[in-house]
Hints:
Elements: H1 2-24, H2 31-51, H3 92-95, H4 101-117, E1 125-131, E2 136-140, H5 146-160, E3 168-171, H6 193-201, E4 208-215, H7 244-247, H8 249-259
Parallel strand pairs: 2-3
Antiparallel strand pairs: 1-2, 1-4
Helix pairs in contact: 4-5, 6-8
Amino acid sequence: xxxxxKKVAKLLKKIYDVLKRMQSRPKLPKKETxxxxxxxxxxxxxxxxxxxxxxxxxxxxxxxxxGKKDYSNSDKEGAPKTEVDKPxxxxxxxxxxxxxxxxxxxxxxxxxxxxxxxxxxxxxSSTVFTHEDGSVSVGISGQNNTKTxxxxxxxxxxxxxxxxxxxxxxxxxxxxxxxxxDIDGGNIKGVCSEPKAANAAHNNPSSIDGFDSRWRxxxxxxxxxxxxxxxxxxxxxxxxxxxLTCADHENAKxxxxxxxxxxxx
Length: 265
């Protein structure tokens, strides 16, 4: 028992010593104290320079709590721009064409016809770009291999079988992925239907005027679209948002650059 008591006593002494050292440490100054010290130093420097005939030190421009210049006491119009005032980069959804009534109708039609000829498991989503001349470029999701390419040809033949002039061009192969970014949490670049649709649209001379992506898989839509369609068309549960890879700003720009066939931009 005596040995145990000695051990307990040693342990308590160690705890006491630690607490004592913590109490003896100097407390960090508050923000207000630091600001006042800096202000006093600056004022002292200004006074010393004024005595020597040197120009007064200018006080730095006041910033608000978001790091932007505070023009609350002055006319903001015509105020000099700062780094934070530079124009923002557009979001990915602003880079893609609008989800028009025409594009959504074509997207629904393509998804319905896919059910007749293509498995939902390996090719669960599709993207369409509509063109001003009425033609439609289609991309189907899936691995970039000969099987997906064969499925795309089968779908293209099926969509055009009753038309005098072929209207649909379908791609199961991605646009070149060398300039695309790998995004953590996103799909492997090139497997989604968006870069496949960009590949289908690449050689179409007619301008793109609409866009839509749609889910038709057996599982629940992994990226449901929650924003607004153009033309006041109601959003439906099968419309898809882009995955993180396709929602990346630079990737979206590359898709549309290739789809519009403007490599010089």
